[in-house]
Design a protein that fits this description.
With 267 residues, this protein is α/β, with parallel strands linked by helices. It contains 12 helices and 10 strands. The chain has a 6-stranded parallel sheet with strand order 4-3-1-2-9-10, sandwiched between helices. A 4-stranded parallel sheet has the order 6-5-7-8, with helices on both faces. Helix 2 crosses helix 3 and helix 4 packs parallel to helix 6. The longest helix has 19 residues. It is globular and about 55 Å long. The two termini are 28 Å apart. The mean pLDDT is 95.
């Protein structure tokens, strides 16, 4: 099937976390048309039930695909991917890329064989995380902690608000204070919001830690699935579409522009 060069890549998240996936994808495919969709009316996902997310995400993506006709959709949200990816793939007739916790690279990078998984409460409790750990880090101790406050910190950072350093400290302490936490040397950022506050996490760490996340791997997957397709000669203005536009969303406009998203729309 021939894909029009104007057909966008659709990125979907509950908020701005998916920008950490958009950035490496844009670096690989610089002229790709982009639609970035955030479910601001449903934010945050990390505190919602599995049933809510499994129902909400496929329905929203169906509407977005109908409106924007993307060539490919990226669920740039670990919580939505671990819960709803199969439902979305069943509902859509385009390729769908999910975002999985970076447990394999964390296990590979850990010299002490103790690594942490920092995500939302909804992500870190998923059986999928246990399966990844068994598959890729069977000889490791895996510590896990869910932080909703860190998601809010990333959103606040992109709105240009002053940040409370205690939030990053508390999130890391949730891992470090578990048995074996004193030997932890690597932390997998298992929420797409968290790479946006990696500098704050590094500054709050009691000792040097290596932070890993899946953005580059997702970008390579997008490039692989779209190889041979045509792209515009120059990147068109990116579209940011929100399910609710309020003052918090409007405060994001300067940050969205830095990611090439200059048009704001509401779903």
């Amino acid at each position: 099937m021939t894909v029009a060069s104007s057909a966008p890549i659709l990125f979907f998240d509950s908020g701005v976390g998916g920008l950490s996936i958009l950035a490496p994808a844009r670096a690989l495919i610089p002229t790709a048309p982009i639609v970035y969709a955030a479910d601001s009316a449903g934010f945050p996902y990390g505190t919602k039930s599995e049933a809510e997310i499994a129902a909400r995400v496929p329905a929203l993506l169906g509407r977005l695909v109908e409106r924007y006709r993307p060539r490919l959709a990226v669920i740039a949200c670990n919580t939505a991917s671990t819960i709803a990816l199969q439902h979305v793939r069943a509902a859509l007739d385009i390729p769908v890329v999910g975002t999985v916790p970076a447990i394999k690279p964390a296990a590979l990078a850990s010299k002490t064989r103790v690594f942490g998984v920092l995500g939302t409460a909804a992500t870190v409790r998923q059986p999928y995380v246990d399966r990844l750990a068994a598959e890729h880090g069977a000889d490791c101790i895996m510590l896990r902690h869910g932080s909703a406050a860190l998601v809010e910190l990333a959103e606040a950072k992109l709105r240009g608000e002053p940040l409370d350093p205690a939030i990053a400290r508390t999130a890391l302490a949730g891992l470090a204070e578990q048995p074996g936490g004193d030997r932890m040397d690597v932390v997998a950022l298992a929420c797409t919001h968290f790479p946006l506050v990696e500098a704050e996490l590094a500054a709050a760490a009691p000792r040097p830690l290596t932070f890993v996340h899946g953005g580059d791997g997702i970008a390579r997957r997008i490039a692989f699935l779209t190889q041979g397709q045509s792209w515009p000669d120059t990147p068109p203005p990116g579209i940011a579409v929100f399910t609710r536009v309020d003052d918090k969303v409007r405060a994001l406009v300067p940050a969205l522009a830095r990611y090439g998203l200059s048009r704001l729309e509401q779903l």
